[in-house]
Specification:
This protein has 14 helices and twelve strands. By secondary structure, the protein is an alpha+beta fold. α8 runs parallel beside α13. The protein starts with a helix and ends with a helix.
Length: 477
């Protein structure tokens, strides 16, 4: 039962498999249901027609028997004798004259209950169509015809046949037919579902292969499905060509960013150098000129950092970002970074060190860049009177470093995208703080390049915690 419930929960009513199964099963149910209904109706008609034929034969035979008996006895006695001979426990007869009075009736009619006889008699007061009538849980076929003897109309003959046994057998047959039809629909639906599931398997394989393709794999990706229909193979070929075009476009974009960043960085560095040189000889500058040159130098420096970040990301994308991996004591590195950060800010930056030394294998300069980026973020997005705390810990073979602040926090809907390039939670605040949306992307790229991972936990108004996980030196040996 639990397995069936689990399968039922996993069924997607909007999937192609479900729609095809429901559509074909519904169509099959309509066809089989219509066929079963038609067969039941035909069986009913055959039953009625066969009984009607028997009654008509009785009606044809009665005048002949009456004529024979009339030659040997009184006509009324002969008529009664002929009716009694034709009647039995299942066949009932009576004859009405033109004045609608019963002239003669079979003795078997007295075997029925008064209510049954009354209802049968009431049916003879209206035009009778040969069909099955249900009276008091019994089934009868009623038919009438006029009787003529020697050209004289004696009256209207009513013949009733009790077909309760045949009708019950018919009802049982119809019930069995209905059960068989339902079972056939269930089995057919299951077979259709399995066949459709098997037929859609190449599409699932194609989906699984496409889902694991990353930006780095676009150029080498080749989608192919064995034993698949021609349409699926054509779809795989089309997707392969699409991936190839995407790879070319992606590569062109990377090369463009790398080339532009490289070409712009050199002249901007020269411009920044000239601006710094002029600012050092500021004796001949007015306050307005000095302010303008300082702004220009600051913006030039900011742009150079942006171009350097773009170059690092471009090299990482192309696989040209190399790391000088060596063993370092994480405690010492963190203390050095905190001392550097304190020189450039007046914020309180504290370390909650682990007493034991934690050795990691990393690129020293890259890891410093990561920590400075995270501390710089914490400074920008928290109040000046709140401290920034760095926590060190080791869990099994992973070194854990947390950078915590008591700042504004990051909305939950933005936390999943905070490490994307050029993604900024608050555009207006980014302009005031000088952010361009690449810092955290650089952090993620560098940490993952050193075999680690980075994540964020944040609540609005309570601050954010960025957690870096790096393999320890013992785990990398």
């Amino acid at each position: 039962m639990k397995q069936i419930r689990k399968i039922w929960i996993n069924i997607d009513p909007f999937s192609l498999q479900s729609r095809l199964t429901i559509g074909i099963a519904t169509f099959s149910a309509l066809i089989l249901g219509s066929l079963a209904t038609w067969i039941s109706w035909e069986m009913q008609q055959i039953l009625v027609d066969s009984q009607k034929y028997n009654i008509e034969q009785i009606a044809k035979r009665l005048p002949q028997d009456v004529q024979i008996y009339s030659e040997m006895m009184q006509p009324e006695t002969g008529l009664q004798k002929a009716i009694n001979n034709l009647a039995n426990t299942n066949i009932l007869l009576w004859l009405k004259n033109p004045d609608n009075k019963i002239i003669v009736k079979s003795a078997t009619l007295d075997l029925l209950s008064d209510t049954t006889v009354a209802e049968l008699m009431s049916l003879t007061k209206m035009p009778i169509k040969p069909q099955v009538y249900k009276i008091n849980q019994r089934y009868f076929v009623l038919c009438s015809t006029s009787v003529q003897v020697q050209g004289k109309v004696l009256g209207e003959l009513f013949v009733v046949k009790d077909i309760s046994r045949e009708q019950k057998m018919f009802v049982a047959t119809v019930q069995n037919l209905g059960i068989t039809t339902i079972l056939a629909i269930i089995i057919l639906t299951a077979a259709i579902a399995l066949y459709i599931k098997h037929s859609l398997q190449p599409l699932r394989q194609l989906n699984q292969m496409a889902s694991v393709i990353s930006a780095e794999d676009l150029g080498q990706s080749h989608l192919s499905v064995d034993n698949a229909p021609s349409e699926v193979k054509e779809l795989a070929q089309t997707l392969t060509m699409l991936l190839s075009r995407l790879s070319q476009s992606w590569q062109q974009e990377r090369e463009f960013v790398s080339n532009v960043s490289h070409e712009l960085r050199t002249p901007l560095t020269i411009v920044h150098g000239y601006l710094q040189s002029v600012l050092r000889r500021q004796n001949n500058l007015t306050p307005t000129q000095q302010e303008a040159l300082e702004t220009a130098a600051s913006e030039a420096e900011r742009t150079i950092r942006l171009l350097q970040d773009l170059l690092d990301l471009a090299r990482a994308d192309n696989g040209y970002l190399y790391f000088q991996m060596k063993s370092y004591v994480l405690n010492d590195l963190v203390e050095e970074v905190v001392i550097m950060a304190k020189k450039y800010s007046d914020r309180i930056i504290k370390i909650e060190p682990k007493l034991d030394r934690i050795e990691v294998k990393a690129d020293y300069n890259r890891l410093k860049q990561v920590l400075l980026n995270l501390i710089d973020n914490a400074i920008k997005y928290s109040e000046a009177d709140t401290p920034i705390v760095l926590k060190l810990n080791q869990i099994q073979e992973q070194a854990i470093l947390e950078v915590c602040d008591k700042g504004y926090g990051i909305p939950l809907q933005h936390q999943a995208r905070i490490f994307e390039r050029f993604y900024r939670v608050d555009e207006s605040r980014s302009h005031t703080t000088g952010g361009c949306g690449l810092g955290l992307s650089i952090v993620k790229t560098l940490i993952e390049g050193m075999g680690g991972s980075v994540s964020v936990q944040s609540k609005l108004g309570e601050g954010s915690t960025f957690t870096i996980s790096l393999p320890t030196h013992s785990s990398s040996i």
